[in-house]
Amino acid sequence: MEYWDDRVDTKYQQSRYIYRSIKRIFDFVASLIGLILLSPLFLIVAIAIKIEDPHGPIFYTQTRLGKRQEPFEMYKFRSMVVNAEKLKKKLLNKNEVEGAMFKMKHDPRVTKVGSFIRKYSIDELPQLMNVLTGEMSLVGPRPPLPDEVKKYSSYDKQRLTVKPGCTGLWQISGRNDVGFEDMVRLDLDYINHRNASYDVLILFKTVGVFLFPNGAY
Asked: Which of 188, 123, 138, 122 is nearest to 160 (CA)?
């Protein structure tokens, strides 16, 4: 007869709690410092967006699903025309990514400024505000759209068991050049092996992706 040692499970739970606590403290401090240091860049991007489209908003908010499918409003710099969501319905048959995602390499909805900030992932930087408030983490699976999750299998939904992140294995592994199934596989690999040193490694590699884009569009 085999016996389960409760001490092993308790030790694991304690290590997970310590990791989550450290991760949250790091997320808060790093996102706050990042928002302060990047404020000049935020101003430049805001001015550029307004010059190209004086009547459109600077920021774009979109409902995403986070941990346990909890909805929240994710922030981005607006990189598309104002009526982008309405135009998306006409472009669904031109989706270039398999699975429950929509991506087009030459999306006609993207503005000139938007094309540049998307290439270097600058449009994602306002998500530091989501990290600051605790809705997202710096590292984790990307938060999906509600309509995308409706197409998820029970296997795919496992990527929603942790807090979503600004960056992750998908971003440093090719981003839009990686299909949906591979993205899920990468996310589950991260979830199963996540720890503080792994997060730092992903963040370090993300800096390289900012400098040398690897499939963002």
From this structure: 188
The CA–CA distances, whole Å, from 169 to 33, 37, 174, 207 equal 23, 25, 9, 13
Long-range contacts, 205-208 (Cβ 8 Å, 24+): 205/172, 206/167, 206/171, 206/172, 208/172
- Residue 180 domain-assigned (yes or no): yes
Phi, then psi, of 164 in degrees rounded to 5? -70, 160
Domain of 109, in residue numbers:
9-211
Domain count for the chain, please give it: 1
pLDDT mean for each 10 residues of the chain (217 residues): 57 86 97 97 97 94 96 96 79 67 77 92 95 97 94 95 94 76 93 94 88 66
